[in-house]
Amino acid sequence: MVEAVRDAGVVVTGAGGGIGAALARRFAAEGARVVVNDLDADRAKAVADEVGGIAVPGDASAIVSEARDALGGTVDVYCANAGLGSGGTEAAEEEVWAQAWDVNVMAHVRAARALLPAWLERGEGRFVSTVSAAGLLTMIGAAPYSVTKHGAYAFAEWLSLTYRHRGLRVHAICPQGVRTDMLTASGSAGELVLAPTAIDPEDVADALFAGIEEDRFLILPHAEVAGYYQSRAGEPDRWLAGMNHIQQRWEAAR
């Protein structure tokens, strides 16, 4: 058992399946009290019933107050996991860009606004952001997703550097391919880049809990992402050339 989460009040958004459901199961198994959120009320209830949690369906941007009440007045851990895997180029419709920004970034901002006053007053709280390796690197064929996941990572990083001395713990989870509906929806780009090394959602939960025990900000379920990230920072033109080669392979295969 991880003592940091035993009997903690935990909220997991987008937890009707995939990574979110795996996180909800793991937190419950570790002795936490879990609120399961999803836009799909039936899926939220199914996971909540499975883990002995409480279903609070609805828009992840607007459920903090209801989730807090469901947990008896206190949220100790908030997992900002709900996300959109929006594909497309710069030519994607304005609505696609706006929805990706709203779900992948602003939902995290709104949750932090609602949670931070109480956390900072009592000197503790834990914010878990499911980002993606795309937030550290990028993803071919998915400009809205890549750009907004960079934003999600930047916001998590900003929260950590701003409030860690006041008791806030932040974790940014950045996996590559994970066997979920989002990977399936990523189509041929996902098959080329993500599927060969895809892991199970439970592997992501394992990586998060190892990071919680070690008090680490950056959670890399795919360890090789650290090397890619270093290459991107240290040799950006070489890294971009390599990514462009993958882009060309994808275009040729379509």
UniProtKB/TrEMBL annotation:
One Pfam family, short name: adh_short
InterPro entries given in the database record: NAD(P)-bd_dom_sf, Sc_DH/Rdtase_CS, SDR_fam
Catalytic activity, EC: 1.-.-.-
Coiled coil: none
GO MF annotations in UniProt: oxidoreductase activity
Alphabetic keyword roster: Oxidoreductase
Domain of life of the native organism: Bacteria
PANTHER family: 5-KETO-D-GLUCONATE 5-REDUCTASE, ALCOHOL DEHYDROGENASE, PUTATIVE (AFU_ORTHOLOGUE AFUA_3G03445)-RELATED
Homology family: Belongs to the short-chain dehydrogenases/reductases (SDR) family.
The protein, known as: SDR family oxidoreductase
Top-level taxonomy: Bacteria, Bacillati, Actinomycetota, Actinomycetes, Kitasatosporales
